[in-house]
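Reading a protein record of the kind used here takes only a little practice. Each token is a code from a learned vocabulary of local backbone shapes. With that in mind, consider the following protein and its fold in token form:
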Amino acid sequence: MFKWITAFAGYAFFNFPGAILGFIIGSLIDAVTGKNSATIKQVFSNETTVSPGDFELNLLSLCSIVIKADGKVNQTELDYVRQYFVNAYGKERANATFRTFNDVIKKREVSAQRICLYLSHKTRYASRLQIVHFLFGIANADGHVSSAEAEEIRKIAGFLRISANDFESIKAMFFKTEDHAYKILEIDKNASEAEIKKAFRTMAKKYHPDKVQHLDPVHIKGAEEKFRQVQMAYDQIRKERGIK
């Protein structure tokens, strides 16, 4: 559009040479604005199609699956979810949302696959990583993640199209084993010093809080925790290996 406007303007002032120059300048403007428009669409197309209410209810449904995974409803885990929504949305909105949550957790059967298929098409990968981390936080609210809870989260992660390595990395943040630091960095215990440093840079970039700045403050806090876990894992390996 701009190329024709600037072409006419150029012709008005400088005749035919001005028209050519105006056309070239206008074409450049069209290219830049078109690129910016495409970039804006790319940035927001994944998540603006999910209304806050849709996201909350789907997230609550996944919470209910994890809470019920071991065959009982733990009050500590319920309180963890409630506090999350109070911190994220305020007490009034959290109470309204939690009434729906009580109905979901007590009466309805929830399809994790259906919910995750919806979310995987509507949210960014970094957001889905944070969902998995949040679900592990719920399971760990009572101080222990049961094998049944971990298995349900693994299924949910799969439905959310989270890679097996990324799932194991997040899981290792809650299961402290001899090699959990290596699992967090997604490397083998026999990895070289160069591989360890490269893995740290990769994971620090993947879990950087800037990746979820579009989410609410509670999710950002969770991202910051993952980022700290990556740093702690790297520091532990450096200390064990004597890496400077």
In short: The two ends are 57 Å apart (CA to CA). Residues 154 and 167 are 7 Å apart (CA to CA). Residues 1-52 have pLDDT under 50 and may be disordered.
